[in-house]
Amino acid sequence: ATKSPFRLKKNEALLTFEDEEVAQRLIKMGEHTVDLDNKKAYVKVQPVTLEMGVKFQLHVTISGKKINVFEVPDLSIPDDWMRDKLELNFYRSEQGGGGEVENVEYDRQSGAAVITFLTPGAANSFMKCTSYPFFANGRCYRLPVSQSTDAHLEKFQLYCGISKRTILVKGIKDAEDDEEIVQDMIEIHFQKPTNGGGEVDKIKYSSGGTCVCFEE
Known about the structure:
Layout lengths: L3 E5 L3 E6 L2 H10 L1 E6 L2 E11 L3 E17 L9 H13 L9 E7 L4 E6 L13 E6 L2 E21 L2 E9 L8 H13 L8 E7 L3 E5 L2
Antiparallel strand pairs: 1-12, 2-10, 2-11, 3-4, 4-10, 5-7, 5-9, 6-7, 8-9
Pfam family, one: NID
InterPro entries: Nmi/IFP35_dom, Nucleotide-bd_a/b_plait_sf
Family: Belongs to the NMI family.
């Protein structure tokens, strides 16, 4: 699930409580009088409605037969010859992996290739290999390699909702103190049981506005 954004406007605060009942009780109370540096501030408490988020499942399958090869040198030879050289090079198991090759897909424009081995599990020997020697035209090139993966999404859905443990405090007046001091005074007020509050898990106050992200 992606994180859900919430735009905190100027002189607003978000408080997330450990207990859901505390947040719901404060919302029902509606208005509160907070002591900010010996000045009374009459604030309103509202529920937090989150913006749209995305939830999905990502399934990744690592192939045991295919590897991806990158930075294949652009040599002045036909594509068929290059495929043959790639097949011969990765067939040489004594160089650290490989085996009998079933198919070679080569794209000159991107300088990439996909090597498919005949034996399942042959690609596993490249799991910890970041580069592989490739011999052509009397030179040895070190080509980046990686195991081929297949990824697909399932259960993709959009969602939005109301944070049950978080409240939005609005109407906080401008104060001469810095944000941290004002935030501390707000937290002290709302964590007192005599004010209907409880233990605060997280708090964020902004004198100028900011964007806050909620996790599912």
